[in-house]
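queue> pop job 88
queue> type: inverse folding (structure -> sequence)
queue> payload:
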């Protein structure tokens, strides 16, 4: 049992000086587990947590070549939304938003969920048409999304230049009130702590260097800390999804690109809503501390580099100032990059593979973090029951060979 976080616990430990126990523990690697999950990001940790919490399967190892939340799960811009374009996507991400809404109480961890609304701007007729399309699909699925005009955009974001003579005039926007942000590190730590408390073992600094298969079935993994036998191995990596899958002989239609982001110095709160412009390749939100968090589209060339570049900052600054000219004096504090495994249809790849027992939860492009809870829930159900849950059936690997793509490009964060 993990120590319960509460005001009373805080007071008691403050008065007695008793230390809090570690949020998750170190372990020796056992020779065998029921399930090995590769990747200690939000997808891997959520899969392990739901396996233990919902299905009583706790003999699980989560292995990662680095540390908890050190990949895409700690590098994203922490945006939550369900205003997708396809019915499959809308239903799937809506379930994630709902799980995120109650995550703090489920995990007894303050994940700082902030339902602040999400605006996707349209600067031309083509984008406005896509926003209307998305709004109709959203409403049909019971999701609150509406196309609004420039005056309503100005009311939501007073610093936005909504004048008709702006270089990229705002013709309207898709407004999605349930969207918002969450503290991404807290989500990773909360799942890690809760999974550990249920008996899951988290092994950081443990790289998978081989995946053993025999007669078309997985047998276990080889790691830098020893070999492990397991009848089920799940690839929950981001950035290395195709390389890890190839260790099992499974080839994925994925190309890996860096996505850069940046954060400014903190200023007084002035931006409540998340703002996205596909035309300008930019999205921005303000944190509870007052920093502005910006992101862009993926770098156009494949790479495994997580370094930021000056070109990115220059382009980003120019585009942000087209939208909000009055923040020109704000200083950028930090920039970084994460790796995105892009699929041909901008939807993930989830479920079984031609190697029995080797499952994938990959291909998360620029939208993986927001799907962490629902992906973990679905993968845990698949492992426990052997049946593919209905909400991930459309995202199977076989769709590429069978021509059943789930085209989400029109609702990916920015145009790419
Ligand atoms: O899909 O909302 C999104 C997103 C934001 C940043 C990257 N992707």
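queue> result:
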């Amino acid at each position: 049992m993990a120590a319960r976080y509460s005001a009373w616990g805080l007071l008691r430990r403050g008065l007695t000086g008793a230390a809090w126990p570690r949020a998750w523990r170190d372990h020796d690697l056992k020779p065998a587990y029921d399930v090995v999950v590769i990747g200690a990001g939000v997808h891997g940790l959520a899969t392990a947590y739901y396996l233990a919490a919902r299905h009583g399967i706790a003999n699980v190892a989560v292995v990662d070549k680095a540390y908890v939340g050190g990949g895409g799960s700690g590098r994203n811009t922490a945006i939550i939304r369900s205003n997708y374009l396809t019915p499959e996507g809308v239903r799937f991400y809506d379930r994630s938003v709902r799980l995120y809404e109650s995550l703090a109480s489920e995990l007894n961890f303050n994940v700082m969920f902030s339902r602040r609304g999400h605006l996707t701007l349209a600067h031309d007729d083509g984008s406005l048409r896509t926003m209307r399309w998305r709004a109709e699909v959203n409403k049909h699925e019971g999701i609150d999304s509406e196309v609004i005009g420039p005056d309503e955009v100005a009311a939501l974001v007073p610093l936005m230049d909504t004048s008709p003579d702006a270089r990229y005039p705002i013709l309207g926007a898709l407004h999605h009130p349930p969207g918002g942000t969450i503290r991404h590190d807290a989500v990773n730590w909360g799942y890690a702590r809760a999974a550990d408390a249920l008996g899951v073992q988290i092994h950081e600094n443990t790289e998978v260097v081989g995946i053993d298969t025999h007669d078309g079935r997985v047998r276990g993994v080889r790691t830098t800390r020893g070999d492990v036998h397991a009848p089920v191995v799940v690839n929950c990596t981001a950035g290395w999804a195709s390389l890890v899958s190839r260790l099992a002989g499974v080839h994925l239609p994925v190309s890996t690109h860096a996505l850069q982001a940046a954060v400014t110095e903190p200023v007084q709160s002035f931006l409540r809503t998340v703002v996205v412009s596909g035309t300008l390749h930019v999205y921005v939100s303000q944190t509870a501390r007052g920093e502005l968090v910006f992101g862009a589209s993926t770098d156009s060339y494949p790479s495994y580099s997580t370094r930021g570049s000056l070109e990115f900052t220059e382009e980003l600054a120019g585009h942000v100032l087209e939208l909000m000219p009055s923040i020109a004096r704000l200083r950028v504090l930090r920039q970084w990059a994460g790796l995105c495994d892009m699929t041909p249809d901008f939807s993930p790849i989830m479920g079984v593979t031609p190697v029995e027992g080797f499952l994938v939860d990959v291909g998360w492009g620029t939208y993986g973090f927001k799907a962490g809870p629902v992906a973990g829930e679905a993968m845990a159900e698949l492992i426990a029951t052997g049946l593919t849950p209905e909400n991930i059936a459309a995202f199977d690997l076989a769709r590429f060979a069978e021509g059943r793509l789930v085209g989400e490009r029109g609702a990916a964060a920015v145009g790419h």
